[in-house]
Amino acid sequence: MKHRRVLRAAVTVAVTGALAAGMTMALTTSANAGTTLRASAAEKGRYFGAAVATGKLSTGAYTTILNREFNSVVAENEMKWDATEPQQGRFSYTGGDRLVSHAQANGMSVRGHALLWYQQEPGWAQNMSGSALRSAMINHVTQVATHFRGKIYAWDVVNEAFADGGGGGRRDSNLQRTGNDWIEAAFRAARVADPGAKLCYNDYNTDGINAKSTGIYNMVRDFKSRGVPIDCVGFQSHLGTSLAGDYQANLQRFADLGVDVQITELDVMTGGNQANIYGAVTRACMNVSRCTGITTWGVRDCDSWRGSDNALLFDCNGNKKAAYTSVLNALNAGPGIPTDPPTDPPTDPPTDPPTDPPTDPPTVGCAASVSLNSWNGGFVATVKVTAGSAGTSGWNVGFTLPSGASVTNTWSATASGSTGTVRFANVNYNGRLGAGQVTEFGFQGTGSASGVTPTCTAS
Ligand code: 9MR
């Protein structure tokens, strides 16, 4: 409820500039207009998706609309941390697998939501902090993204990590308190686990150029400049009775950073403007060539988390609303994507931070390379381990740290020692590597680690 109150307060202060233009365009249709959302979006090289509660897949009235109108799905809850890892190290994929099967049988792509979010953390994770939580969360990303590897079009790797209000900074959470680099550590782990999935950052109250969206913009720009793997930004777009006049301009400024943008959780308060706002959002996406698709957060009004807001495109009886027609017309009137169909593999090289020197894999054993993110008094090291031609059943990486440097925190490996010669052994899920396969681990420290070189031993 707290989340919802904050959201509502923020959407009602938005301005209305985009709507007037929207109303005229919504009446326009093209000669070859599609007759369903999925066909019309596909004609323009995009997807049109819905959030699905998998329990409803056995309800005929629901599934009929889903299969007719949508060619992308996202689990409303079933791929979240509390659902997929209810006890530490015990993974449960029943709901997620069911949704993936339904998608595959009906020509739909799947968005993955969400690997890390401060809400819907399982109880055991809520009680953790520091390096134990950092390891647990990176393990979660690795395990879940590996399970669904090859089946997910785009993952929300991190959801809602920025604070509301004017500061443009990060939201406090136990995840954030493991260190500001938790987001990039999660993206790097996700890339290693599923190199074919687009990796997105997803948030709400980012429906225009404001302090929060600018904070995210600055993070994405920083990630792109440092080679942190990020491919897309999700704009949830839980909207009230007006739309920010710079909604499209905001999408465009992110696209100009070299990431795709997606409308990921669209729903709009009922009332006179609902159809116009839906149309304006759809048009904004169509006008941004890197906007690859739109997802509504549910199918029928009665499926929505927003209850009496009647915020979706179909009423509770499954009838198409005026908002539906507005979206369909905007899809049919919009330009197509000139290049880059949405199923293209990400443009980033999967695992190579750009600052790494090239490392020739040895014929046997393993190789390690390190990239450092340093500041005055501290550093984060991201270490890439590449298996040689024989593969590995385990690995161990050693560093000799300069005096004054000390390891304070490690993820995806187990450290022995913290100063001088420090060794990092694989953890249970990343020791076994095929020939040439790559995995990553990381550690944080105080002091300076500049100039360190790793040595790798395989078993
Ligand atoms: O729609 C979801 C609802 O069923 C859950 O109870 C809720 C739990 O916090 O999450 C809802 O989905 C949220 C999404 O995962 C992230 N963005 C906001 C969505 C609406 O709250």
How are the secondary structure elements laid out?
Layout lengths: L1 H11 L5 H8 L11 H7 L3 E6 L7 H10 L2 E4 L5 H4 L9 H12 L3 E9 L5 H4 L3 H18 L6 E6 L22 H12 L4 E6 L7 H16 L5 E4 L2 E2 L7 H9 L4 E9 L5 H14 L3 E6 L25 H12 L32 E10 L2 E10 L7 E6 L5 E6 L2 E3 L4 E5 L12 E9 L8 E4 L1
Parallel strand pairs: 1-2, 1-9, 2-3, 3-4, 4-5, 5-6, 6-8, 7-8, 8-9
Antiparallel strand pairs: 10-11, 11-16, 12-15, 12-17, 13-16, 14-15
Keywords:
459 residues, eight-stranded parallel β-barrel, four-stranded antiparallel β-sheet, 13 helices, 17 strands, binds ligand 9MR
Number of helices: 13
User: Widest sheet: strand order?
Assistant: 1-2-3-4-5-6-8-9
Q: How large a portion of the residues is in β-strands, by DSSP E? A: 15-25%
Alpha-beta classification: alpha/beta
Q: How many strands?
A: 17
Percent helix range? 25-40%
Return Rg in Å. Answer: 23 Å
For the largest beta-sheet, the strand count, sense and barrel status come to: 8 strands, parallel, barrel
Oligomer: single chain
Alpha carbon gap, first and last residue? 51 Å
What pattern of helices and strands is seen along the backbone?
HHHEHEHHEHHEHEHEEHEHEHEEEEEEEE
**General shape:** elongated
Unreliable sequence segments: 1-32
Walk me through what this model shows.
This protein is of the alpha/beta class and 459 residues long. It contains 13 helices and 17 strands. The strands form three sheets. Strands 1-2-3-4-5-6-8-9 form an eight-stranded parallel barrel, surrounded by six helices. It has a four-stranded antiparallel beta sheet with strand order 10-11-16-13. A hairpin with a 4-residue loop joins strand 14 and strand 15 (421-425). Helix 8 runs parallel beside helix 9 (182-193). The chain is elongated. The termini are far apart. Bound molecules: ligand 9MR. Ligand 9MR is lined by residues 76-77, 119-120, 159, 204, 236, 265, 305.
